[in-house]
Amino acid sequence: MVKPERRTRGDLIAAGVIAVVVILVAGVFWWTSDSRATEQRSATEPLPTPAKATEVPTGLRELWQAASPATARPVLVGNAVISGEGGTMAGRDPVSGEVRWSYRRDRPLCGVTYVYHWAVGVYPDSRGCGQVSAIKGATGGRGPTRTSYADKTVTLSSDGSTILSAGDTRLEQWRTDLVRTIAFGEVDARYKPGHIGLGKGCRLLSAAATASSTAVLQACPDQADVKLTLLKPADNDDEPTVRDVPQPGVTADSGARVVAVSSSTTAVYVPTPKPKLSIIDETGEETAAVLLNEPPTSPIGPPATSTAGSVVTWWTGRTVVVLSTDTMRYKYSVVAAGTDVPLGPATIMADKLLIPLTGGIGVFDVKTGIKQRLIPVARPASVTAVTLAVSGSTIIEQRGDQLVGLGA
Q1: Which residue from 107, 167, 330, 364 puts its CA 20 to 30 A from 135's CA?
Q2: Which DSSP string corresponds to 83-142?
Q3: How far apart, in whole angstroms, are the C-alpha atoms of residue 255 and residue 314?
Q4: Which residues contact 142 (CB under 8 A, 6 or more apart)?
Q5: d(CA 267, CA 326)
Q6: Neighbours of 146 (CB within 10 A)
Q7: Residue 364, φ and ψ in degrees, nearest 5
Q8: What is the pTM of this model?
Q9: Quick one: which of 142, 140, 174 has its CA closest to 158?
Q10: Looking at residue 186, what is its pLDDT?
Q11: SS3 state of residue 21
Q12: Strands 394-399 and 402-407: what pairing?
């Protein structure tokens, strides 16, 4: 038998020092890691699927309220209403508002959206609002994550199958597993030899997307007018197919905006020569135009637009313009009538179009736009914008930073 080597006192001391260093390094990594700074509480069981409403209630009362400044509109996924405040994203019971699961990080949310059956929270780091976490809406279980370069403020929107994250200088589109399908604009570091970046030096004013098409209005330093850029995913996420559509006479401060996108059509608001909603096909040609009585006063982005069944609705501030989802064909407008002024875009409940009005919620025929009745809803006088969503027989309102559940 070979005699084991003799261990000296110095060997033992060295081994001990190495062990201590390893423990200290591991402790530092854990202390500074995202895992340590994350708290998660899952639901004990999935939220039940609510029965689909067969009729619109004749009356509504307030069921609950919750602060949610990180959502731009009600986010419903996995039968839960998702709220976002501070660093916490929570899945709530639509009827009671009770928190069924929560996910918290030690940094404030940039925003909350959804894709497929995931609630998605976007958090900041030193590279911008690019740390993304997906949480299963029904249970609070963890899903895919991603990190990337981003602006310090981003606008999030989703068509259910993709997410668009758009800032002033850069936008990204992610599919259901959070893999990036489009990157457009500026990056802090060039990660490909010779890659110069698309839209270099330009400011992104407004954007909207579906899984197959993205549209963005850009203001570039060497051009007096803005341009509409139509993007299609390609083999490389940072090299989408690009078609620029000039917008003569439309300046960056004019209020022009992308309103909605379908697979082959874009609806864009332009203020000149007269305020209109311009319908543009994938070749860049204007196929139709909807003249507006006045420029929109509604905010740019998701709070002003909704997809409700077979229609897209756009709230201009005093009017709700209704378009078909496939071709953006104009159908009709719901205009302010006396004290009944629209406060936001529409949603669908029991095959009726619901529009928030100053006096409550208006019920309209979805095919004709004819008003059938008004459901009174008492809101604070300070509420000037409302977006709606429906879960079973419960109506969810986003009023500024507050979510409100309404039921019969």
Answers
A1: 167
A2: EEETTEEEEE-TTT--EEEEEEESS--SEEEEETTEEEEEEEETTEEEEEEEEETTT--E
A3: 15
A4: 40, 103, 133, 134, 135, 136
A5: 11
A6: 17
A7: -125, 155
A8: 0.88
A9: 174
A10: 85
A11: helix
A12: antiparallel
- Can you name the residues that pair with 185 across neighbouring β-strands? 170
Half-sphere exposure of 182 (CA within 13 A, CB side): 29
In Å, what is the CA distance from 380 to each residue of 358, 359, 384, 405?
10, 11, 9, 15
Residues 373, 364: Cα–Cα separation, whole Å = 7
Structure tokens at 399: 């009023």
Look at the chain and count its residues: 408
Q: How far is CA 270 from CA 205, 222, 336, in A?
A: 13, 20, 22
Measured CA to CA, the distance from residue 103 to residue 120 in angstroms comes to 11
Q: How far apart are CA 305 and CA 172, in angstroms?
A: 20
Predicted pLDDT at 201:
82
Confidence class of residue 235 from pLDDT cuts 50, 70 and 90? confident
Q: Terminal CA-to-CA distance of the chain, rounded, Å?
A: 86
Tell me how far apart the alpha carbons of residues 374 and 211 are, in angstroms, rounded to a whole number.
36
The predicted structure's pLDDT at residue 19:
62
Tokens 């854990």 appear where?
30
Mean pLDDT of 214-227: 94
Q: Determine the 3-state secondary structure of 13 from DSSP.
A: helix
* Average pLDDT value for residue range 192-209: 73
